[in-house]
Specification:
Layout lengths: L2 H4 L2 H9 L9 H13 L5 H11 L9 H13 L7 E2 L14 E5 L2 E6 L12 E4 L2 E2 H7 L8 H4 L3 H5 L2 H6 L8 E6 L6 E6 L9 H4 L3 H6 L18 E4 L6 E6 L7 H15 L3 E5 L12 H6 L8 E5 L6 H13 L3 E5 L7 E4 L3 E4 L4 E4 L3 E4 L11 H5 L11 E2 L4 H5 L4 H16 L14
Parallel strand pairs: 9-10, 10-11, 11-12, 12-17
Antiparallel strand pairs: 1-15, 2-3, 4-5, 4-6, 6-7, 8-9, 13-16, 14-15
Length: 443
């Protein structure tokens, strides 16, 4: 929850601006991982014992940095907790990444973006990477990141695009090139791609970037749906004509100006009195759960119609807390639309980072419990949740909606389409208002 409040982003920016340096893990990195295991309270007893056993194997991997890093990631992943992780978005700052990028859709893995000389690959369905079925690589990635599959899927493309990591995991041999086998009308085609260092900058060095945003830069401007337009701002308010209501996009629960945005949005909503409200959390990796609480709790009292929340596997951390407060306030008037959120209703968070000095890697540990089913009365619970409990049965989608490559590339938003269809259905089922009574003439 406090990741982006505690990590000094300037440190990341400085680290990513230096020339490429060969990582050299050593005893200090092993000791850092020992510290990590001690501080990470998310481990069940058996998993902690296994993490301690795996720590003893790390010194023997110091000569192969990528293998050392993956085993450090594995030690973190043994907690099976979304907030206990070696941060994947920093991989492109240490290992060369393919310039041909992938995205997972309901109908498989596709190329979402590529440089100009490879632009013809965009949209092609990926069959194999380095000769291995991409689904095998996707499954194997669970060893290096714990938590729910939907959250892991937000980062597995980075793993698939990084030849050195694939080679260290046994899915290739060349640390600098990627062999991508693509579907073709007659027979599959394999292309070889040279990887390069392409580090993320600023906050993206910790949260990464959704492949949907990456690929949207190549969509024709008239085919970019509202949720992918202008991805720079972290929050926005719009009133689409077709919605008969307000659309609020929150891509984070943090950022300069967010409190002012919430205050101004509530003023505008109360002035315009929209019938329905849509809160889009599908790209929201979290921030500070305390910031949005009052805002979320106020929304149901403004709109007389439905409240909709759009979610995905990238809806994580404080975004889940905020969704919980919205669900608690709106009750049955809230419909959750899209894909499952990125974590369970009970998880561990509120930790800090441990840096592996030789590798330059960051590992996030978790130290406080969150439980959104019980209100979290236990003494090891995060104090904000004990003071402002969340008690909900589920935050799973009421209206499950996936996204295919065809829908994405054509600029369609099936989540919003499902919402509009639900509004239309409810409007048609509403009994007509009785005609006004005839005035009675005085006798």
């Amino acid at each position: 929850m406090r990741l982006l409040k505690q990590i000094p982003l300037a440190l990341a920016s400085l680290a990513l601006c230096v020339p490429e340096v060969q990582a050299a893990p050593g005893p200090a990195d092993v000791q850092a991982m020992r510290t990590y295991v001690e501080r990470n309270r998310a481990y069940p007893p058996a998993a902690r014992a296994e993490a301690l056993r795996q720590l003893e194997l790390l010194p023997g991997l110091a000569a192969t940095p990528a293998r050392f890093e993956l085993e450090a990631a594995h030690i973190a992943a043994l907690a099976d907790n979304g907030h206990s992780v070696l941060l994947p978005p920093q991989w492109p700052s240490r290992y060369r990444r393919s310039p041909v990028h992938f995205g997972l859709f309901s109908d498989g893995l596709h190329v979402v973006s590529a440089p100009a000389d490879r632009r013809q690959l965009v949209g092609r369905r990926v069959l194999r990477i380095n000769g291995r079925d991409w689904r095998e690589i996707r499954s194997a990635y669970a060893r290096y990141q714990g938590g729910l599959p939907g959250f892991r899927d937000q980062f597995v493309p980075l793993f698939m695009e990084t030849p050195a990591l694939l080679a260290a995991a046994g899915f290739g041999s060349d640390p600098d090139r990627l062999a991508i086998t693509l579907e073709a009308p007659e027979r599959a085609e394999t292309v070889i791609v040279q990887a390069a260092l392409t580090p993320y900058r600023d906050e993206a060095a910790f949260t990464g970037e959704s492949p949907l945003i990456d690929g949207a830069r190549l969509l024709p401007p008239n085919r970019v749906p509202l949720y992918l337009q202008d991805p720079g701002p972290l929050f926005r308010l719009a009133f689409p004509v077709e919605l008969d209501g307000a659309y609020i996009q929150l891509n984070a629960i943090r950022g300069l100006g967010i409190q002012q945005f919430f205050e101004q949005t509530l003023v505008e909503l109360r002035r315009r009195r929209p019938h329905n409200i849509v809160v889009d959390l599908r790209f929201n990796m979290g921030g500070d759960l305390n910031i949005a609480r009052d805002f979320m709790q106020a929304l149901p009292g403004i709109a007389p119609g439905r409240i909709y929340a759009i979610t995905s596997g990238r809806t994580f951390s404080a975004a889940i807390s905020s969704l919980g407060y919205l669900k608690q306030a709106a009750g049955d008037r809230l419909s959750i639309v899209g894909e499952p959120i990125g974590d369970r209703l009970e998880f561990w968070a509120e930790g800090d980072i441990v840096m592996l000095p030789g590798l330059g890697a960051f590992v996030l540990y978790a130290s406080e419990r969150h439980n959104y089913m019980t209100g979290c009365p236990e003494p090891d619970c995060h104090s904000a949740i004990r003071e402002h409990p969340i008690r909900v049965r589920s935050l799973q989608p009421d209206m499950p909606v996936g996204l295919s490559w065809a829908q994405y590339s054509e600029g369609r938003d099936p989540a919003m389409a499902a919402i509009l269809a639900d509004i239309a259905r409810r409007e048609s089922a509403r009994p007509p208002s009785p005609p006004p009574a005839e005035p009675v003439s005085p006798r």
